Sequence to fold (784 residues):
Amino acid sequence: MFRKKNRFAVASLGVASLVALAACSNGGATPGEPTAGGTDSASSADCAAYESYGDLSGKTVTVYASIVSPEDQPQIDSYKPFEKCTGATIAYEGSREFEAQLPVKIEAGSPPDIAYIPQPGLLKTLVDRFPDAVKPVAAAADANVDKYYNEAWKGYGTVDGKYYAVPVGANAKSFVWYSPSLMSDGGYEIPTTLDELMALTEKIATEHPDAKPWCAGIESGAATGWPATDWLEDMMLRTVTPEEYDKWVNHEMPFNDPKVVEALDMAGAILKNDKYVNGGYGNVKTIATTAFGDAGLPILDGQCYMHRQASFYQANWPEGTKIAEDGDVFAFYLPGKDADVKPLLGGGEFATAFADRPEVQAFQAYLTSPEWSNEKAKASPAGWLSANKELDPANLKSPIDQLAFKLLSDEKTVFRFDGSDLMPGAVGSGSFWKGMTDWIALDKSSKDVLDTIEASWPKS
Amino acid sequence: MDWLLKATTPAEKILVMFVAILLFAGVMAFILYVSEKLPRWIPAVGFLLPAVIMLAFGLLWPGLRTIFDSFRDAAGRKSVGVDNYVTVLTNPDFQIILLNTLAWVVAVPLLSTVFGLLYAVLVDRTRFEKLAKTLIFLPMAISMVGASIIWKFVYQYKPATANQTGFANQILVWLGLPPQQFLLNPPWNTGFLIVIMIWIQTGFAMTILSASIKAIPDEITEAAQIDGAGSLSTFFNITVPSIRPALIVVITTIAMATLKIFDIVRTATGGQFQTSVIANEFYSQKFSQGNNGIAATLAVILFVLVIPIVIYNVRQMRISEGER
Fold:
């Protein structure tokens, strides 16, 4: 009797698993509900720009990126016109562990259709490690990039002469945040050269001993140190020629070249001077433990005058902070050696395809179109822009984004991509971050730090 | 097989239903009528096989693969001999990591066991025993990440002129001392991270040791007292030898957990400021820097370091089982 009872228990377990199986197969059947597009004349007119993508009803494209809820909503919203007009479904997935998980997904044979890669260096590694998984950009998207983007942006997505990734977002990093009222109260002028900036720093330090001219923070979890790499890169662009900068990034010039030491010392003139930092937080060493998102906030309390951080920092100001030239905070362009030369450090994300199905290629082309850039700008809060020439500045949410876009599209601007994002992972997201952290936290000398990073550059 | 997994039309769905019913009938028939007539070894193999397969594919194969990878370059393409091991053992940055791991493995098991034992003896048979034990045991219930965040707040630094938000620095300020950046200055920062682990593990040590202290027969302790042994003498000559097997289990278990420590370092400092340990460095080499060779080497070193503890633990367990 007991045995029989046991067997019935096992049998019922079998039933349960069958039910689970049935539930799974049912779940797979739901996506691909054809979306009824173009029922009224107005929306069909809107869809004119989308006709070239063809009818993609029932097709699904998966997108994988590092942006998670709730910041991912503008992403998802920006795909809606595409979904409506072509009938395709875009399945978005965000993960904080994106950089770690993407290679795992590829290795496991289940890569996403499209991934947003924030670092061209990572793209290079992926192409090198998984040459068959990464698919070259198809003709339509390629033509769009040629038409709407500066050719430099195509270069960042190119590995060994093959074009792999299209630009999606962009940001400008050469900005200094400040409080307009604090500046005008002190009678200070916005500096237009690097020397003026240093003079202003010294002036604030002597006239306001209770505050500090600068505040900074480089803590960012496992990525701690990256804001300091931006400091060095910005200083490099202001001390060496753009060509030399490119050589340094590509390791045709040693990482510890005397010119780099000089640039790092210039950053150190501010970052490693207890008189100049760290407003609101304490001495130099507190930079290492201050979260980069909090670093500029003492500006609002008047404890700090200036904070060098990218255009995307505007998302970190507390709600209700007015970002404008006459508002609570604003940013000025980190000046060059003299007022006519305008080097600009920036970054961006790139969309790479891991499948060459027509719907994936169509979606990648959509991401390069002016329609998408404008949709994304409309859907996003302040802090987002792209380098698409056809992007309408009126769609950008803040004056900083408009300023950044103006600088990006200005012919006179010497734009250079964030060097640490271009370098191999062992340096760009390893020894460079760590070296800059040690430079501040352990007070290592500029030379020692750069020597260590040079030694860590992968051989062969 | 598309129609089976992604049935769309009604006809396909009905077909899927029939397949499900057939499967159900098949499984039921097998269990109710066939299973009884099978020879006894078939069920035994049926139960063992999944475990063996999982061990082979989940443990043995990855283990061998990791050892293989540790002799290859960052991309795993060509052999580099023992270069990875040379790098890890001679590069000053890696040496710091190995030293940190050593500090962890020595400090955490010893201190947690000492504190756990002292606490177990002190609260034994007192009026507040249950409450006191609960308080010490509570940190065990907190995840390592949670504990690290709590302690990160405890260690938080604000300049002397501002109001302190970190408890540790507030105490220093009350005592008239300048606030410290606990997690910034090596080598002390590793020590402050080790405190977190001890805080968690002491409860574990205390629980196990307390149970085995209670298992010491009263006759022995009474006999010792009659023979004139003081409380210190009773502790060292009666209590400690009696609970030796439990002590060893506690020390080795904590040592193994400590060797693999990852969460605390990653949450509190991210391995910055020379606080990294092997497991944390393994993760950042593999996943943020894409260096499979060095990552595999670190994993192998970790594995080699755990082996002696495991062997010792198993042997001690055999000995104590033999005693019974």
